[in-house]
Amino acid sequence: MEDLRNKSHSDVDYQKIAAPIKSAVDKFQLVPEFLKVRGLVKQHLDSFNYFANTEIKKIVRANDKIVSNIDPNLYLRFKDVRIGNPTVAMGDGVVEDLSPQKCRLTDMTYAAPILVDVEYTKGSHGGYSLSEKNDVAIGRMPVMLRSCCCVLFGKDEDELARLGECPLDPGGYFIIKGTEKVILIQEQLSKNRIIIVTDKKGNINASVTSSTEATKSKTVVVMEKEKMYLQLNQFAKNIPIMIVMKAMGMESDQEVVQMIGRDPRYGALLLPSIEECASLGIFTQQQALEFLEGKVKKLPYANLLTGKAGRAMSILRDVFLANVRVIKNNFRPKCIYVAVMLRRMMEAILNKDAMDDKDYVGNKRLELSGQLISLLFEDLFKTMISEVQKQADNVLSKRSRSSPLDFSMLLPRDIITVGLERALSTGNWDVKRFRMHRKGMTQVLARLSFIGTLGYVTRISPQFEKSRKVSGPRALQPSQWGMLCPCDTPEGEACGLVKNLALMTHVTTDQEEGPLISLCYCLGVEDLELLSGEELHTPNSFLVIFNGLILGKHRRPQRFANTMRKLRRIGRIGEFVSVFVNEKQLCVYIASDGGRVCRPLVIADKGISRIKEHHMKGLLDGARTFDDFVREGLVEYLDVNEENNALISLYEWEATPETTHIEIEPFTILGVCAGLIPFPHHNQSPRNTYQCAMGKQAMGNIAYNQLLRMDTLLYLLVYPQRPLLTTRTIELIGYDKLGAGQNATVAVMSYSGYDIEDAIVMNKSSLDRGFGHCIVMKKYSAINQKYENKTSDRILRPPRKDDINKKGENPDWERMQILDNDGIAAPGEIIRPNDVYINKESPIITKGEPVMVGLKDSDYKPSRQTFKGTEGESCVVDRVTLCSDKNNNLSIKFMIRHTRRPEVGDKFSSRHGQKGVCGTIVQQEDFPFSERGICPDLIMNPHGFPSRMTVGKMIELLGSKAGVSCGRFHYGSAFGEPSGHADRVEAISETLVKHGFSYNGKDFLYSGITGCPLQAYIFMGPIYYQKLKHMVLDKMHARGSGPRVMLTRQPTEGRARNGGLRVGEMERDCLIAYGASMLIYERLMLSSDPFEVQVCRACGLLGYYNHKLKTGICSSCKNGDNISTMKLPYACKLLIQELQSMNIVPRLKLADL
Amino acid sequence: MSDSDSEVMAEADGFVSALNMPDVPSAKLPPHLELRKTRVLCNVDAPHNTDTVQYSGAYASIGVDNSLRFDDFCNNFRVEVTRLSHEDMEFDMVGIDPSIANAFRRILLAELPTMAIEKVLIANNTSVVQDEVLAHRLGLIPIKVDPRLFDYLSENDTPNEKNTIVFKLHVRCEEKGQRLTVTSNELTWLPKGSEFLKTSESLTSTSKAETYTSFTCSQDSLPEFGGNPISVYPDITIDKLGFGQEIELEAHAVKGVGKTHAKWSPVATCWYRMLPEVVLTEEIEGKKAEVLKQKCPANVFEIEDLADGRKRATVARPRACTLCRECIKDGEDWEKRVSLRRVKDHFMFTIESTGALPPEVLFTEAVKVLEDKCELVISDLS
């Protein structure tokens, strides 16, 4: 790049320099273009596409042959594999095209057949013939929506609408048995990289998690008591590292020291280890291997066949640093690798700065759905192969075979289909081959709100267990800048561990390594093999490390890096290859592996942006796309490591000659959820975090196809609005089209006392006019079951008012008024609690012999399904769908709708983490009104502001107020003031004044009660308010008497079971302290589980009451002489009896009080 | 008002208050108290003296009577209409206490009856708008009919021509690929009452099929509606239909008040503001005058050329003041120069009618309601 800079310097047009500086090029337009080509869930799609196009082929190619063990001439070879179009076989050979919406509605899996081309040999001993078969399905692969295999791929809005799909839906999830499942992005520590950290004991260790196709292992070199040891699972104890070196053939200590570096400080640090080795009397490779042999873990089933020396050797070869391949027993690369590890460790000892940070984003890799599915597929594919092999051998081993073996007929279809489906629907990834047992990998895509859905697909779930009480991984990392959203993380136990991607983040996929490696050698990397240990660490030469593998060294690292970057910018190597010169470690790191996070940045030469006015014009005219910018070397992707080599300026005008890159837009450091907040940079940071969590609970529109969906629970707002104060992110993700809130005129004042503790006072007239109305839809389903005896349920015409049955009565017609003549509730009918929504009858006998004759009416018992809603809630049957489920039963689904109006206790929130419940609803005439006759929709208590410090909310109010008065949507993008994506308060105030408001947004209000002006100016204006899904109607609960638990006869627990309200331990303590003994007696026994028992005063055991004799009798004394009757909690009686059953005899001693 | 009534009665009895005697000098309040009593001072920090002094003996110690006098009221009270159209009106109401003005406002908002759709019988609705939402939307459509011609429909009443107006809406989108916007124009008045038959009745009784209303006569035969069919406020979007979607319903409007639901409120809104008074406490001349004129976005100030070529700021349009407080914002000296005030007994009243009744009628109705209330209080107290 050096020469490049010089060139541009000489070309400088001096006239241009003399000219006044033009305003910086507005690069904002790049963001929507980026999202157009890469999209919000592009990482998922890319990853899945990579799997579908490349990875799956690799896997099949790696295991392409099934050879019979019995007759090695018989084999089957997979020539090619691909994923077909999503279709479903409809039983009778008819293949039907699938669309995602259809799968959602009919509980199917959205999957496409995996088609392979095979060639296989047929025949037996004498002649073999080779035959071929194309397009053999070996299973069905669940298809990610909007991926290249999906029918939605590349469709425009109209076509999507025709398929019943929402154009704003991001895709990136799967549909498994009708439920939408997302594979969460998994965060992991990078594989195959040396990481130096201190462990719990304060020892410094260097660890490498190796992962190759064949093995996965973890190698740790630890410094303990000044000596260095190797920790490996296969060895029972720590092995002195010098022994390992010797075992690998580095017999001379001098060689080791040379390899590590001649610095005397290193030598001094290594000395104790060398001494220890010598004291153990190990000097040769042979001795070392023998020593290692003794330390190998004795596996219980270790077969004695493998030679003794072989064992240690093979561990060193295959397990120890598995990522460094040993070719032809050449251990030298491994030795160098160990030497580099040791050197890095010693550096860390000498200089604490050299320590690696586990939480550094550059040391992390994100595992995406494609990778996870490919793991699963590989395992299942191998299982399938072994299964085929086993079957083939079975067939072949049978002497009498009628027909020659046809391999292609043996290919089972369900191993892969079922395996993939199960993993995706349960989220349990059990891959035995890699000893992988991970739970909760998939989650149901929450469709509570559009934002919630988007939030799900950008979520990153951690690998650590959440219970750990460490702060390190939870803290905000500076390296997260621009990659992971600093705001969006849940509160509570997963705080800081679960993260979300920022707006412009891209996650890389794997890239071919071979060409890159040879390119490196071409560019002057000196091969490791040709270097002596001494030469390795000569000053001014840098090690070149490619994907964790030491390639060699380079004498002019900066030049090398610049050339690599130049090649990348002109598109000769992949755009996601990162080149990172680490000056501290004297290394050049080149990475092309998948799972790195990176983001686009504008390239600047000597601080001058490469993007000029005409480029952006081309973009606006549609002549260019974002990819053109990348191709032309105007924009490039930097990953976290390479960012360390860049000097990135936030704005063009802030660039200095040293600047190498310029940010596209600062607001892109936030994610989707945080992007909704206007002026987030004026808020206290936890408020933004709270809003990120709450935005997901806000009711609004879910998707354009929301009324065609059959979700189990659907919350909709009746009149959703787009926010008056928008941000660029809102426009980019389509929140302005699928809003989740309403612009309420808020007066910040105290009113009526029902607004304390964040409660909100609402205007009744506003509610009358539709503010905050919402629709809650619940799904009820019924199945017309078929039974094994060929009988099935039936749905009957309901009895009408005038129908009379045989007994001359007609008891149920009232409950079945809403049913149509087909026995199914009619859409649009009002359904009341205990109404029947399907008049179904089931046969009494469902098992046994198939019944051929038609059943009589008496053979059926009614199995009607009744609606269990709360009284006073008037629900409506919204939709009824009929479809056949996977067992070919008729499945009937009902959507039951309830339209609600806000009531006291419903939860609302602004976009600034300020939630509150509705405290009271007040008539409009009692509300204050302004000089212009404006009456607020809600009143918020000003005490919400000082401690929360949500200045953004105040600016939102001002901005919205200016917006409504001048008729232009105002903007409040994060950090947007300098670049014009957020309006400045000064400008807003000017607009307000122009329209006759006070510059500070405070109005002169009259009290609606007295009619006099209020004694203060009131801060009033519109704020976007969200209605959250928590509503009193779903939560309120009280009970007098009700159901009890069978076992203990105590009241049931929980609202769903109409349970009692518990007087808990602490409440009981209070009552005891107060001395209200009778109250405790009443609460804990009389109102709970009183029980009358007969106690024998003689033996103290419980007796029973004989109803014939009308006396109590003690069963152990066999008489009723000393029986007393008393009351006891039933639970106590139960305890006594349970103890008795365990041979413990509790005896009651009765005394008079 | 009742107070002043008693006053009159007292005088008729021959009892004359000493303060009322013509030869007793009526003491005037000192100017600073007078200001506090009659004006709201809108300072930068907050409005001051917002409340009114009601107590008759509030100024007794300085010998000023503060009691409200009927004849004073009669002499001072006036109403001036400044703007009047079919839908809205603005008038000044001078010489009245804020509580009374507020009472009118509250009555207008909440207690004047109108007709509004309360019950919607939906025969068919295949549009995307849910039945409840559709009904809610219909409810909010103003109906242009004089509510005084109707009775309230109480719980046990059957809907008849005296208490119910029935509208029909039957639309279907027939054009393929087109959206049909259903507006309130499509609501047609059914003067003969409901056309929907009660299903249960139709089966058994052979007599005249019963509908959901029992009109004894057609409403258009009544003199009030003869040449004057009942209509609703036009061009309000009710719904949008896609191809093949259909709405068939009947909407029953009944009489009600805004207190129960805002749809019965006869006004879109109704409010008053106190008369702005802008006082320049010192002469503002020259550049400062220019600055002052520039400051005000409502253009309250004007510049007057004095004879000697100097320029002086004057308050030309005090009514235009929106109380943005721009003129007193910049520093204490401006606050000293300009005083923004509100006259406590001068109300600029605005009524925006929804169309049922013209705004001036609404106001007179409101006065009647207040009168009735007073009478009720008097009769209940006596």
UniProtKB/TrEMBL annotation, chain A:
Major location (coarse): nucleus
Chain ranges of the RNA polymerase beta subunit protrusion domain: 39-400
GO cellular component: DNA-directed RNA polymerase complex; nucleus
InterPro entries: DNA-dir_RNA_pol_su2, DNA-dir_RNAP_su2_dom, DNA-dir_RNAP_su2_hyb_sf, RNA_pol_bsu_CS, RNA_pol_bsu_protrusion, RNA_pol_Rpb2_2, RNA_pol_Rpb2_2_sf, RNA_pol_Rpb2_3
Role noted for this protein: Essential for the completion of the three rounds of mitosis in female megaspores required for the development of mature gametophytes.
Family: Belongs to the RNA polymerase beta chain family.
Protein name: DNA-directed RNA polymerase subunit beta
From TrEMBL, chain B:
GO biological process: DNA-templated transcription
Keywords: DNA-directed RNA polymerase, Nucleus, Transcription
Pfam family, one: RNA_pol_L
Principal location class: nucleus
SMART domains assigned: RPOLD
Localization: Nucleus
PROSITE patterns associated with the record: IG_LIKE (PS50835), RNA_POL_D_30KD (PS00446)
Molecular function in Gene Ontology: DNA binding; DNA-directed RNA polymerase activity; protein dimerization activity
Gene Ontology CC: one annotated term: RNA polymerase I complex
Domain Ig-like: 147-217
UniProt family annotation: Belongs to the archaeal Rpo3/eukaryotic RPB3 RNA polymerase subunit family.
The protein's name: DNA-directed RNA polymerases I and III subunit RPAC1
